[in-house]
Amino acid sequence: MTNIATIHSNLKGDKTIWFIVALLAIFSALAVYSSTFSMAYASLKSSESYLLKHTIIIGFGLILTYGSYRMHYMQYSRLAPILLLLAIPLLIYTFLFAPEINDARRWITLPIIGMSFQPSDFAKLALIIFVARAISSRQENIKDFRSAFLPIIVPVIIVCLLIAKDDFSSAGLLFLTCTLMMFVGRVDLKYIGLLILLGVLGIAFLIILGNIFPEEFRTDTWFARINSFITNADGGWQIQQSKIAIADGGIFGVGPGNSVQRNFLPYPYADFIYAIICEEYGLFGAFVIISLYMGLFYRCTSIVTKCQKNFGAMLAIGLCLSLVIQAFANIAVSVHLVPVTGLTLPLISMGGSSLLFTCISFGIILSVSRYIEANIKTKSIDMYPAYEGYH
Amino acid sequence: MKEKKSELLLRVYILFFTVLAVAIVLFLKTAQIAIVEGDRWSAKGDSLYLKYVSIEADRGNILSEDSRLMATSIPFFEIRMDLNCDGLTDELFNQHIDSLSYYLSRLVYQDQSKEQVKQRLKAERKRGSRYMLVKRKVNYEELEKIKKFPLFRLGRNTGGLIVVRKSQRQMPFKSLANRTIGKVGEGAKPVGLEGYFDSTLSGEAGKKLMQRVAYNTYIPVNNLTEIEPKSGADIQTTINLDMQDIAHNSLKDALKHHNAQFGTAIIMEVETGAIKAIANLGKSKYGYVEDTNHAIGEAFEPGSTFKLPSIMALMDDGLAGPNTKVNLENGQTRFYDRYMRDSHFHGLDEVNMEKAFEISSNVGIAKLVNQLYRRQNNSRGYLRKLRQFHLDRKTGIEVMGEADAFVKNPDRKEDNWSGITLPWMSIGYEVEVTAIQMLNFYNAVANDGKMMKPYLVSKVFHEGELVKEFKPRVLNNQIAKESTIEHAQTLLENVVVRGTAKRLKSNQYDFAGKTGTAWFDYDIEAQTKKYRASFIGYFPADKPKYSIMVLISDPKQNGFYGGAVAGPVFRSIADQLHAYDTDFAKSFTKAESNWANSEKVFNSGYKSDFKKLNDTLGFEMNFPPTGNWVNIESEAHSLIAERIAFNKSKLPDVVGMGLRDAIYILENVGAHVELSGSGKVKEQTIRKKEGLQTIVELKLE
After folding, report:
1. Tell me, what CATH number does B553's domain have?
2. Residue A18 belongs to some domain of the structure
3. Smaller CB count within 10 Å for chain B: N or C?
């Protein structure tokens, strides 16, 4: 009890967000333990070994969360251009040289550590920090095209295009996140409209490219998924399995560890973990999961309302949007509202490197909330424009 | 500033409520699937339900002493077709249905035309069939053919071919030792070696993911998790199939002759305790068949064969010796209110114990035991001896369901020990033992007092490699004093020389044994009495090699005494074993070494055959190092093998050979053989015909 009390008194920042992180981590451990059953069976390992590995990763992730929470969020603003300049060459390298797995080049292996990760995860984080910085620093003339809109949008387009070829869904979500950040950041609505048009054009561009270089692009996969979504009213085989899982769960679920559908769903521990949660914990579990993400989003919007044009606010809302949009996209796939994307459920799905970047995102959000909280406690943040002086 | 703030807040709120709307939509959609469409999806889930089904491992074989298969699992396959598998498109189906129907009608269903088959396949596909039975029992060769049929050759997921592997337990020697081999599975109680060694034989089951396609019907899903089964181990028994055959047929003949209910015959190797044969035959509507393991699974009142432990107890405790006097009272005496009679009229009174045993006098043995033991701590001395002889407990033979012995105990109230228990027990009533137990006791006597554990399994092999070996085990190094054993052996020999088994005497070998006749429904006032005739003995008497127990229950004609019913079976088995076992044939070598000149014996032929004969019979012939063919000559008291060299220009001389060798040699040089008679080749004449063909006429005698 004293430990918890100590943690409670030492952890500053938004308590609700800390609570959400903790609950998501617990859900993650439970769901992963259950859904790796068939994988464990196939590899003759025990589910416990996957649970252990996953717990270690979550533990490491939470350390990263704490680390990034301890850093003053303004530090990220300074790092933003450097991170972005690191991310772009890394993406180009991946784009050209990464080993091809399932027709896509997404993963590279870090030398020395030997851990593989997706540079797109890193680029996503870097881009969001960069956009947050760009928007907040240009608030005075944010409606202007040349001095505000263009410097923000060019890096966004570059990064999204580099990701799009091999990971179309992630690129789309990142683009959407950035667009929404700009929307919140008071960018002129006509430019926002332009962005939407740009997004549509981008898709068309990729499809044309895909037709010219069918070997290089995964247009077949995209079309197959979209086609299956449009033509098959019940969804493809995977989606049907997901629906069966949700239906089997009913209102209260079949109980932890009792999932049957984990045997049939592809990647039950990643892409379809929401279905497994629904099967084991029922609609009740679904409500909790959706509420947790929604709660996170609520807390982040309240940060924005407390300090509107602040870099921290933009950063928090951007990172939060990225997490929530991805979560909702994952859920939307499981309930057959959008075509299959291959996106994971942030912080819940098993999967090493993405999880770590998610944890860093949470850490940054918490860092923002910590200092905003501190400032509100003393006086209004607007009274201390010194932080603005960082850039 | 204020304007900016309100614009930003407005946008944040718009965003927040949009995201909230998305969240609500997601939740509602989840709820719709879970509740509104719930039943539909759950039902669908049931139909797609998969489960792990265990795949049985190949069951190990049961082998005879010389590694012949006594029980083995023959694999066969069931062919089914998934007419609605994922890869079987209409295009593919229509393209191949004609040729598939053609092959099926020609090679699988001879009674159906191609058109009929085609219509059936079409109908089944339309019906949504995913597990249509093509053929229930198909062997490996047929399977290989079927796999190459059009459509089927595309495999499980495209062609729809489902092969279900099954296996059937078979016993190549049919009823021989059937009951000893035993049986497991299908809800029946596991019995015999199959039951006892079930875990060894059955191996480890594998697992396979199966998909439910209809109620209680599952089809295998390929490319998914599968754990290969681990095959079971083979067990090699001590059963000698030739001896089993001897025991089986000797017993069967006797059962028929006496129209008996059932019988058992067991052959045991004296020195090791290895069981060489167990025959169990019972009357059924199909004649006499192996039905129940009477030898091991049932305890009986043994009757007179139990007199051996009784007198051995007396001798071992020093209470009596072969010359101890006893009054037979003309064959009838009284214990309390019960009369005991001898089975044969003998008119004897004062005799010694030896004589009483030889003629199997109930009165004599019962009086001795009763008089001498009653005073010894109220019969407990006698019971202590039975324990010492291991007669109160199971032998521990590796067969499922060995019955318990039942020896009454005056200290146990439920046993109803009475004043007449001891005398009756001493002659084999009010006590129950199994046949294997009695035989094991007699075997210990034959083995100079060393009691071996009877055993049936000598080795366990897994995939050809020896995993475990069971060596003979001593249960008790000396079950009684040496003098007791010696007296017992003499007494048993005398039973054959001049006692109840004197008519069974053989002039080929000496044997020892004891007859037994138990009256078994003595408490029922039946019109006809029922008997259980038995004989337990061993041979040769001086250096026992085999002990044999024969028990025949309820003989209805041609006599009922142990000596008359079971004794001849013992003789028949012993005679045949004596002829079969080459150990007994050695003495004959030197006596008649000029057999090679005999008219009846092949004296030339294939070298390896003669070598084998030489080794088996223990002759001391030297063989020429080269050449495949030899001629055997006898000189004085030894045999000489000489090489036969065939000259290419001349037709080989095959006189003196057996027909098999003769034909082999002649046909190898291109000759055609015509023959008459039987036996060995006596004469060979050449008759040339057209062309190059040589015709050789062989006369056999």
Report:
1. 3.40.710.10
2. no
3. N
Identify the domain containing residue B382 by its residue range.
243-580
Give the pair of three-digit tokens for residue B150: 């059009």
Final residue belonging to a domain, choices B237, B268, B295? B237
Rounded CA-CA distance B526/A146 in Å is 123
Which of A191, A188, A49, A68 is closest to A125 using CA atoms?
A: A68
Same domain? For B206 and B273 the reply is no
The answer, yes or no, to whether residue B31 has pLDDT greater than 80, is yes
Q: Which two tokens stand for residue B363?
A: 């009165």
Residues 6+ apart with CB under 8 A from B310: B365, B368, B369, B382, B426, B427
Q: What are phi and psi of B623, to 5 degrees?
A: -105, 145
CB pairs under 8 A between A and B: 114
**End-to-end alpha carbon distance in chain B:** 133
CA-based nearest distance B59→chain A, Å: 24
Structural domain includes residue A303? yes
pLDDT per position as a tens digit, A285-306? 999 999 999 999 999 998 888 8
Tell me if the bond preceding B410 is cis, omega within 30° of 0. Answer: no
Q: Are residues B212 and B163 in the same domain?
A: yes
The lowest-confidence range among A156-160, A371-375, B188-192 is A371-375
Shortest CA gap A300–chain B (Å): 10
- Do B575 and B612 lie in a common domain? no
The Cα of B35 is separated from the nearest Cα of chain A by a number of Å equal to: 6
Structure tokens at B30: 């989840």
B590, part of any domain: no
- Cβ(B407)–Cβ(B390) below 8 Å: no
Residue in the block written with tokens 């998914």:
B224
CB contact under 8 A, A283 and B34: yes
Within an 8 Å CB–CB cutoff, is residue A224 touching chain B?
Answer: no
> Any chain A CB within 8 A of the CB of B26?
yes
- Test mutation, A36, A136, A278, A294, chain B, max B CBs within 10 A: A294
Give the span between the Cα atoms of A46 and B474, in whole angstroms: 46
Whether residue B570 is found in the same domain as residue B611: no
Domain-located, residue B657: yes
- Whether A11 shows a pLDDT value over 80: the answer reads no
DSSP state of A265: S
Nearest residue, CB atoms, B34 vs list A41, A241, A250: A250
Which CATH number is B140's domain given? Answer: 3.90.1310.10
Same domain for B206 and B294, yes or no, is: no
How many domains does chain A fold into? 1
Same domain (yes/no): B38, B60: no
Q: At a CB cut-off of 8 Å and minimum separation 6, what does A339 contact? A: A225, A226, A228, A229, A333
Residues B351 and B460 occupy one common structural domain: yes
> What is the reported pTM?
0.57
Find where tokens 């006499």 sit. Answer: B288
Q: Whole-angstrom Cα distance, residue B226 to residue B219?
A: 14
**B343 three-class SS:** coil
Separation of alpha carbons B208 and B52, rounded Å: 5
Could you tell me if residue A147 is inside a domain? yes
In a mutagenesis test of the A interface, which of B1, B3, B5, B12 is the best target, namely the one with the most A β-carbons within 10 Å? B12
How many domains, in total, are found in chain B? 4
Q: Could you tell me if A79 lies within 8 Å of chain B, comparing CB atoms?
A: no
The residues with which A109 forms a beta bridge, in sequence order, are: A116
Q: What is the pLDDT of residues B591-634, one digit of tens each?
A: 455 555 555 567 788 888 888 887 877 777 788 888 888 888 77
Closest CA to B152 of B134, B140, B166: B134
Of B205, B237, B269, at which residue does a domain stop?
A: B237
Q: Are residues B609 and B508 in the same domain?
A: no
ipTM of model: 0.89
- Domain annotation covers residue B369: yes
Angle between helices A311-334 and A119-137 (to 10 degrees): 140
Residue B327's DSSP bridge partners are B350
Domain presence at residue B169 = yes
Give the pLDDT confidence score for residue A37 in this predicted structure.
67
